[in-house]
Amino acid sequence: MNGMIADIRAQFPALDQQVNGKPLVYLDNGATTQKPQCVIDALVHYYQQDNSNVHRGAHTLSDRATGYFENARKTVQTFLNARKAEEIVWTRGTTEAINLVAATWGADNISAGDVILVTAMEHHANIVPWQMLCEKTGATLKAIPVNDQGELDMEAYARMLTPEVKLVACVHVSNALGTINPVADIIRMAHDNGAITLIDGAQSVAHWDIDVQALEADFFAFSGHKLFAPTGIGVLYGREELLNAMPPYQTGGEMIEHVSFEKTTFNKLPYKFEAGTPHIAGAIGLAAAIDFLNGLDRPALAKHEDAIMARVSELCAQNDDLRVIGNASHKASVFSFLLQGAHPADVGTLLDQQGIAVRTGHHCAMPIMDQYAIPGTIRASFTFYNTLEEVDALFKGLEKAKMFLL
Ligand SMILES: *Cc1c(COP(=O)(O)O)cnc(C)c1O
User: Fold this and answer.
1) Could you tell me if 248 and 274 are in contact, meaning their C-beta atoms sit under 8 angstroms apart?
2) Are residues 339 and 191 in the same domain?
3) Is position 93 within any domain?
4) Three-state secondary-structure class, residue 258
5) Is the same domain home to 67 and 21?
6) Are residues 99 and 211 in the same domain?
7) Is the distance from CB of 266 to CB of 274 less than 8 angstroms?
8) Predicted confidence band of residue 13 (pLDDT cuts 50, 70, 90)
9) For strand 234-238 and strand 219-223, is the pairing parallel, antiparallel, or unpaired?
10) Which pLDDT value is given to residue 242?
11) Where are the beta strands (DSSP E) in 232-382?
12) What is the span of the domain harbouring residue 136?
């Protein structure tokens, strides 16, 4: 094993265990990533030493917790290259971030006759909130088609950009196919048409650096838990001028400036969108994960992930029983496939018996499964701590599964 990868793996305690008597091969990073010790330590340290509510600064612990919490926001700001920390809104994750935009920006800006564009490869989190908004407002939801390789049809997209399109909501990297979408082009074309954009970055942040200014993104959402951080914390980036114009989301404490029974005025950004006590430890854990990533040679890790996918392709080519779902020319380290004649769930169970963790099913992306006329796939999703040996273990595991199933 590559020394750099061995050193990194050593920092992820959960990777070092046996499952069903075999060394764990964790290939479900698209669902959630494991956490490095420094993130776990940051959580423990917070609860052991600094635990307190934020922004109520009457005492030292509260000041300390508030300092860590707001520094975490700055860490995310730098990570995304946002202009201001005020543009970083804490959410529970990608799902809540998208729901926030649908409920606030959507309520103010979408009306009957408008069109919202998504792609045919969206996660349900980037379909259903828009569908509900369309039902409420009389707007129409349309999906940009995807070809058999799993690539967006950009010519169709150009044709679909009519004056009625007010929003284009698009996944950066498909969790079901691995497709990397050309989001810079998608955003530029939407803007030329006067539309606002939301990028679902749940699967992209873990693989390379994001620059929301270079992308000219209006909204960008991601989840901490797919970025080596805790569950229950995520981020909505929004351009300041858009966030300022939006009504609040949930209401209650923290998000207000002044409350009387006659009238309430709302707090400034980003607190206007952060009603109630936030996930303080989660934000601190997310900042620790980003600090950890910043300490790694990310370009070298991206090359390592490319080598993993090259090995997957090489082994696939030797195997006639596999049908790969998603063959986009730009693809992240997601390997979605079927083993001819076998149900994905059965394959998943047989792999688990060998200590190999994959995901099986529709991956919360039923529309694209329908397009391929399949109920689901087997998905191995890799990240930088995976090894070439683990790719080999997956294919050996599939050979064993075949003996049972085919
Ligand atoms: C995981 C995922 C989501 C939802 O993220 P949550 O953390 O469950 O809110 C949305 N979109 C994509 C592409 C995902 O992979």
Assistant:
1) no
2) no
3) yes
4) strand
5) no
6) yes
7) no
8) very high
9) antiparallel
10) 98
11) 234-238, 256-259, 264-266, 322-324, 334-339, 356-357, 359-361, 377-381
12) 41-294
With tokens 């908004």, the residue in question is 133
Q: Which of 38, 170, 316, 364 is catalytic?
A: 364
- Asked whether residue 243 falls in the same domain as residue 121, the answer is yes
> What are the CA-CA distances from residue 36 to residues 20, 251, 344, 378 (Å)?
23, 35, 30, 26
∠ Cα 120 125 131 (to 5°)? 70
- The structure tokens listed for 245 are 């114009």
| Length of the chain, in residues | 406
pTM above 0.90, yes or no: yes
Cα of 7 from ligand 1 centre, angstroms: 29
Measured distance CA(221)–CA(80) in Å, rounded: 11
Same domain, 385 and 263: no
Confidence bin at 57 (pLDDT 50/70/90): confident
Give the N- to C-terminal CA distance of the chain in Å, as an integer.
32
Query: 368 in ligand 1 pocket by Cβ < 6 Å?
Result: no
pLDDT digits (tens, 9 = 90+) for 352-374: 999 999 999 999 999 999 999 99
91 lines ligand 1 (CB under 6 A): no
For the residues 231-258, what does the mean pLDDT come to? 95
Structure-model confidence comparison of residues 120 and 255, the more confident one:
120
Atom of ligand 1 nearest to the CA of 96: 9
pLDDT reading at 402 higher than 90: yes
Does the pLDDT at position 341 exceed 90? no
CB 200 less than 6 A from any atom of ligand 1: yes
Taking Cα atoms as reference points, which of 241, 236, 172, 239 lies closest to residue 209?
172
Percent of the chain with pLDDT over 90: 96
* 277 and 332 inside one domain: no
Phi, psi of 229 (to 5 degrees): -115, 175
Inside any domain, residue 36 = no
- Does the active-site annotation cover 170? no
Q: What is the per-residue burial (b if ≥16 Cβ within 10 Å, else e) of 136-161?
A: ebebebebbbbeeebbbeeeebeebb
Q: Nearest C-alpha to atom 8 of ligand 1 is from which residue?
A: 95
* 87-109 mean pLDDT: 98
Looking at the fold, whether 52 and 26 belong to one and the same domain comes out as no
- Nearest atom, ligand 1, residue 171 CA: 13
Ligand 1 center from residue 152 Cα (angstroms): 19
Note the pLDDT tens digit of each residue in 268-321.
999 999 999 999 999 999 999 999 999 999 999 999 999 999 999 999 999 999
> Residue 58's pLDDT is what?
86
